[in-house]
Design a protein that fits this description.
The structure holds 2 protein chains of 2 kinds. Chain A is of the alpha+beta class. In chain A, strand 18 and strand 19 form a beta hairpin. Chain B is built from 16 helices and no strands. The relative contact order of chain B is 0.11.
């Protein structure tokens, strides 16, 4: 029988493909994988794909579909064919992310203290203060070790020019790292030998590094700090991840009403009474964290938490107020921040960004709506977005009106031709667009997980990779430069 | 251990045990109805749950299929096997980080199996299904017991499991005593072998009973299912095990403040002092009734002593609105 799941007729078209060159040969690092796929029959490959899906369902690695009273749970669609990141690309990405996080952390500390960057005229004051997630309540705060953004999940994309760009920094509650770890686990069962032969770098020590990061930023006078993960609860889409991370770190997973604040200290309610908490990895938005300080109607938060934080009796990860850096207008200034705080040139470029508040940019955007991607400054998840080339005239008119009404709230970027990875579509491979979210931990030092979440837009031609809009994920294989980096201690557990 | 976590683990275990016991009752009814087509098997089963009104609101008659549907798959009935298992899994989901992955996966598998079974017509719900439910429940218990450290989490689960089992053994005995023994003069005679052996089978006790005694009498059955100190489904055994676990979970510093411990001790003493004769003389039904009141009080005392907090449902919307920017 003819093998349909092969790369013989695979067409990369005009896109950069992460596995196959335009000549149809495997990219460096992908040789063993392609060889293995070619050696398996279609039935076997599809069987492995189905087995992985069944395993994910059985493990309950699901997200909750909102607006469904029955609380339907779905698995995050998974595609068997991994994305490969070559060693040289990774070195570049890693250096670029460390630089970027270092600058962003300095930026956060600066804007909540002396605002030197505003005084120096680099970022206009109105741009900063009109960011919805700028928190005046955080002015003057000094988080332990000066660390604000402990956990970041930066979204990267590769354009058809082959260059890797930063699309978004996610400094609030970046999610998805549990999928990185579980995708790896199920893939190792499917392709055990290819991992060792290809020199894939392990990701399993993420939770150890996360715990180390938390411990390193505990209030200074605590001997044996108690760390907890604070979740909004089981109806949150990322609940699985919260419980997974707590379990992997061996710490308690708490909800807001498990905690109380007394004498400006945070305690959890246990079967033996109160027990003090020192570090909180919170997966609740600033707004909901403390009804005394932020939204009064929050039922998820802990009254008095910010008092305890201000007194230095508890560390919050990420620090409140970091969300300001997720504002897409602030994003546009990150290259300037790197130059200003580090006196270096950015290693990873931003996607060129038009800030509609600037008159010149706005004129350009309004006359090129059919080519650009327009994004609301404060939205996430692929909402509040216009993809010019895929939009109708009416949609463009709607956005033109929105931009003129509130220019501060919009930016625009050229439509990128995101790179693609071969993906199983029915019984054959087709290229599908992907992005990449590596995870960066910042404590005493900055560490980048050698891997990340590759999200894939499963719809043909689609550029939207968000899970809420038909996206799925793939395992991400960062190839080791040096074989010892890929020491496979994952297989020993 | 967090109070909320302790409570969820306790309820997880209770619901799993509850589902298993229901499966046992239904399975025995199926078997008896095959041997004894005239016997009224199905109505007493609903009586054992105490939810006759809920049943009659929705179903016309106590037919085999109606009762099986009601007790097995009816998601509108909060104590059906499927509802219990859904509740067990929901509790487990909130404490996934506190139980072993193996336990969670087994429970999740069990739940997925049952949701699949629920899609088939009720006529397919035969003895094989209930045997499988029992097996899944035993699998969970075995995996839970062999992968969990004996710390508070395991002890709270064990308390939940054995209190639930004590309650269910007492209920089935009460209903059967009432329906199978309408005349007080039957006491002391050899009773209907078939129907009483069915009661013993429903708690997997028939063979164990036979090893100990030979012929069936009411006194011996009461002795075996209520007071036996070695049979793992007898009420006394269950209570002793639950009390043992309760003594391991700490609690208020002053023992006099620990109402859960005090109630458990009193209940144990009551059983230790009882004999089959004193139970029958005082009225078996009255004995079981007061036992069930004691069990409910003990459950409430455990709640107050260890879990004194509740998750509110209205928080659900806010949970969903939290940005977890995977988008």
């Amino acid at each position: 029988m003819m093998k349909k799941l092969s790369f013989t007729n695979y067409d990369t078209e005009e896109f950069f493909d992460e596995l196959i060159t335009e000549k149809g040969t495997p990219r460096q690092g992908a040789e063993r994988l392609i060889e293995r796929i070619n050696s398996l029959s279609d039935d076997e490959l599809l069987l492995r794909q189905r087995e992985i899906e069944a395993a994910l369902l059985r493990m309950g690695i699901t997200f909750t579909v909102y607006g469904d009273e029955a609380g339907t749970e779905k698995i995050f669609p998974f595609d068997l064919i991994p994305r490969i990141v070559q060693a040289s690309d990774w070195q570049h990405v890693e250096a670029g992310l460390k630089q970027r996080i270092s600058a962003l952390n300095k930026f956060l500390n600066d804007i909540y203290h002396d605002q030197e960057i505003v005084k120096a005229g680099i970022i206009p004051r109105e741009m900063l203060e009109k960011a919805k997630s700028f928190r005046p309540q955080c002015i003057g705060l000094d988080p332990p070790g000066g660390v604000w953004c402990h956990i970041t999940g930066t979204d990267l994309v590769r354009h058809s020019d082959g260059a890797i760009y930063v699309l978004e920094d996610n400094l609030r509650c970046p999610s998805g790292v549990s999928y990185v770890l579980q995708n790896r686990l199920v893939m190792k069962r499917s392709f055990p030998h290819v991992f060792a032969d290809s020199g894939v770098r392990p990701v399993v020590n993420y939770s150890t590094k996360l715990l180390e990061t938390m411990l390193s930023v505990a209030p200074p006078d605590v001997d044996d700090p108690t760390v907890v993960v604070l979740t909004p609860g089981i109806y949150n889409s990322a609940y699985y991840e919260h419980s997974f991370l707590a379990q992997q770190m061996g710490v308690e997973l708490v909800q807001g009403d498990d905690l109380v604040v007394e004498d400006d200290r945070v305690f959890m309610l246990t079967t033996d009474g109160l027990e003090q908490v020192d570090v909180i990895y919170r997966r609740i938005d600033d707004d909901f964290m403390d009804p005394e300080c932020f939204r009064k109607d929050s039922m998820l938060g802990v009254p008095g938490l910010m008092r305890a934080y201000r007194k230095g009796n508890v560390t919050l990860c990420n620090a409140p107020g970091t969300g300001v850096a997720d504002d897409k207008v602030i994003y546009a200034y990150v290259p300037e921040m790197i130059r200003y705080y580090l006196e270096e040139e950015p290693i990873l470029p931003n996607v060129p960004t038009y800030v509609c508040q600037r008159e010149e940019d706005r004129k350009y955007v309004l006359s090129h709506l059919d080519e650009l991607v327009v994004k609301a400054a404060n939205e996430a998840g692929g909402y509040g977005m216009l993809i010019g080339p895929h939009s109708t005239k009416e949609e463009q008119q709607t956005f033109a009106r929105l931009i003129e009404e509130d220019p501060r709230n919009y930016i625009a970027q050229p439509t990128l031709a995101l790179s693609r990875v071969p993906t199983i579509v029915d019984d054959h491979f087709e290229g599908r667009h992907v992005d990449l979210r590596p995870y960066v931990l910042c404590g005493k030092s900055i560490w980048v997980l050698p891997g990340g979440l590759t999200r894939v837009a499963l719809k043909k031609g689609s550029l939207v990779v968000n899970s809420s809009q038909g996206g799925g994920s793939k395992d991400t294989w960062v190839i080791a430069n040096n074989p010892t980096d890929a020491v496979d201690f994952e297989s020993t557990i | 251990m967090l109070s909320r976590v302790a409570s969820s683990i306790y309820w997880m275990a209770r619901y799993i045990e509850r589902a298993e016991n229901l499966a046992r009752f239904v399975d025995v009814a199926i078997n008896v109805s095959l041997d004894h087509t005239t016997a009224q098997q199905w109505e007493p089963l609903v009586q054992a749950t105490g939810d006759e009104e809920v049943f009659l609101d929705k179903y016309q008659a106590y037919t085999s299929e109606n009762v099986r549907q009601f007790l097995t798959f009816d998601t509108e009935y909060a104590s059906s096997i499927l509802s219990c298992l859904t509740a067990a899994r929901e509790n487990a989901r909130t404490v996934r980080e506190a139980i072993s992955s193996e336990s969670w996966e087994t429970l999740n598998d069990y739940y997925l199996f049952l949701t699949q079974a629920a899609k088939r017509p009720i006529s397919a719900a035969n003895s094989d299904l209930y045997t499988e439910i029992k097996k899944q429940s035993h699998l969970f218990s075995g995996i839970f017991d062999s992968t969990m450290t004996r710390d508070k989490g395991w002890y709270f689960a064990n308390i939940g499991r054995f209190l639930e089992r004590a309650d269910k053994t007492s209920r089935i005995l009460d209903v059967k005593y009432f329906t199978l023994l309408p005349h007080i003069s039957d006491i002391g005679t050899t009773v209907d072998d078939l129907l009483w052996s069915a009661v013993l089978r429903s708690v997997s006790g028939f063979e164990m009973f036979r090893k100990r005694y030979h012929t069936l009498t009411i006194e011996r059955i009461i002795d075996f299912l209520v007071l036996d100190s070695r049979f793992p489904r007898s009420i006394a055994y269950c209570l002793r095990t639950a009390a043992g676990s309760l003594s391991k979970v700490g609690g208020p510093e002053n023992p006099a403040d620990n109402t859960a411990h005090l109630l458990a001790d009193a209940l144990l003493k009551k059983l230790t002092n009882a004999t089959d004769r004193t139970i029958i003389d005082g009225g078996f039904h009255e004995f079981i009734d007061s036992l069930q009141v004691d069990l409910n009080d003990l459950d409430a005392a455990i709640g107050e002593t260890y879990f004194a907090k509740r998750v509110q449902k209205s928080r659900r919307m806010q949970m969903q609105t939290q940005t977890q920017s995977l988008g």
